[in-house]
């Protein structure tokens, strides 16, 4: 995903260290420290790219398809990371593989619908939101 945070007068710029802190906070609070950053880079002025995974495919936040666990971060992980991002940076703009969010309000109004899409062409009847062991929308850590 790509994160853009507009520069705000009188505030420090948003950096990769801020993203690391967000992921760490969510990992500790919600996923038993199972989240990891696969890639994190500055991609131009005020732009950061991020890709997540899980350390243990059998742990919280892992994608699960037909009983098979994968070290891929599930939909809920991204939801929780973006929730935390928007608490700290409500005017951030985020682009993912399936959507663009222009603010925290836009994210809140539209993210849930992304979970309703099919996981992939091989699993057309499995919704993204169901491809994990998370309960009640978020992992119960």
In words, what does this structure look like?
The protein has three helices and nine strands; from the N terminus they run βαββββαββαββ. It has 141 residues and is α+β, with helices and mostly antiparallel strands. It has one domain. The protein is globular, with a radius of gyration of 15 Å. The two termini are 24 Å apart. The relative contact order is 0.18.
Number of helices: 3
What's the β-strand tally? Answer: 9
Mean pLDDT: 93
- Which structural category do the helix and sheet elements fall into? alpha+beta
Largest beta-sheet details: 5 strands, antiparallel
Provide the fold topology.
Blueprint: E1 2-4, H1 16-30, E2 35-42, E3 47-54, E4 62-65, E5 68-73, H2 75-88, E6 93-95, E7 100-101, H3 104-114, E8 118-120, E9 123-127
Antiparallel strand pairs: 1-3, 1-6, 2-3, 4-5, 6-7, 8-9
Please sum up the structure shown.
This protein has 141 residues and is an alpha+beta fold. The protein has one domain (2-130). Helix content is 28%, strand content 30%.
What distinguishing features does this structure have?
141 residues, 3 helices, 9 strands, 28% helix, two-stranded antiparallel ribbon
